[in-house]
Amino acid sequence: MKTKQINMAYHLLEGKRGIIFGALNNLSIAWKVAERCVEEGAKIALSNTEMALRMGELDELAKKIDAPVIAADATNYEDLENVFTQAQEQLGGKIDFVLHSIGMSPNVRKRRTYDDLDYNWLNKTLDISAISFHKMLQAAKKIDAIAEYGSVVALTYIASHRTFFGYNDMADAKSLLESIARSFGYIYGREKHVRINTISQSPTETTAGKGIKDIDNMMDFADKMSPLGNATAGECADYCVTLFSDLTRKVTMQTLFHDGGFSNMGMSLRAMNQYSKDLAPYEDENGKIIYG
Ligand SMILES: NC(=O)c1ccc[n+]([C@@H]2O[C@H](COP(=O)([O-])OP(=O)(O)OC[C@H]3O[C@@H](n4cnc5c(N)ncnc54)[C@H](O)[C@@H]3O)[C@@H](O)[C@H]2O)c1
């Protein structure tokens, strides 16, 4: 379903400083978030791994939005502390918002199924996709890098709550990620009024998304099940802007669904129509009528 993208600046992030982790190319959700934040008046720093930087596309974004780029492996605590220190120096003060848009599973990449996981790879999945969020928050808090009422958002997926074929050990990583948002959200909220939330986004066609088994079918199914259709990366960026803005100062420790209504659906007319088509009687090669 095609949706109209709102392309209007509301100046919601005027004067704010942010760090966006995880923009790889122009399909990345983080890429769109970075662009939208700058449109809304923020100054931002970008971060990704050395390897991602070598791929060269991030440079293009950095030039376009005039943002410094600071390399970091999100599993490395010292790297993360360095990002917060450098970003404060380069942007000229404490950080008002942070996006964690990082995920990777070697088991998914190498097609290991959930009942045949490689445990070293599982550790990597959890470290990159979830524990990195804890490291990020701990590093920021220890050097007091985030301003009062700052806002931190990580991206998650509904497979943390319900089982989705093919999502594999990323489901466990997303459950942990959401739990870290709650546990750290309590402490950081109590002490510094810093808000921590996760956005549970529709399946989206990105480099990470393409790694998931049968992503096209999953996207089509989610789209047909959702009254508003799948949320795009651009729409996710709009939602992030609201969470980074001062309009959501009492929202914290939540998993917020940004999925066109998918998470509260059981069966939709569009999905039923599609399913009925597949179940229509057909003639087999011997002329026998087969009923779905
Ligand atoms: N695409 C989807 O369908 C979808 C749906 C819901 C949630 N999400 C989540 O959105 C986030 C962003 O993914 P995306 O879909 O934009 O794909 P993407 O591939 O563009 O982004 C993933 C990013 O993670 C970075 N990364 C991987 N290992 C890292 C490490 N060790 N240190 C630092 N960065 C590292 C990659 O370089 C890349 O920039 C992920 O958390 C993903 O799980 C995606």
Automatic annotation (TrEMBL):
Pfam families (alphabetical): adh_short_C2 (PF13561)
Gene Ontology process terms (BP): fatty acid biosynthetic process
Enzyme class: oxidoreductase
Binding annotation for NAD(+): G22, S28, I29, I102, K174
EC number assigned by the record: 1.3.1.9
Catalytic activity as recorded in UniProt: a 2,3-saturated acyl-[ACP] + NAD(+) = a (2E)-enoyl-[ACP] + NADH + H(+)
SUPFAM superfamilies in UniProt: NAD(P)-binding Rossmann-fold domains
Pathway linked to the protein: Lipid metabolism; fatty acid biosynthesis
Gene Ontology MF: a single term: enoyl-[acyl-carrier-protein] reductase (NADH) activity
Residue numbers annotated as active site: Y157 (proton acceptor), Y167 (proton acceptor)
Keywords annotated in UniProt: Fatty acid biosynthesis, Fatty acid metabolism, Lipid biosynthesis, Lipid metabolism, NAD, Oxidoreductase
Chain segments annotated as coiled-coil in the UniProt record: none
PANTHER family: ENOYL-[ACYL-CARRIER-PROTEIN] REDUCTASE (PTHR43159), ENOYL-[ACYL-CARRIER-PROTEIN] REDUCTASE [NADH], CHLOROPLASTIC (PTHR43159:SF2)
Family: Belongs to the short-chain dehydrogenases/reductases (SDR) family. FabI subfamily.
Protein name, UniProt field: Enoyl-[acyl-carrier-protein] reductase [NADH]
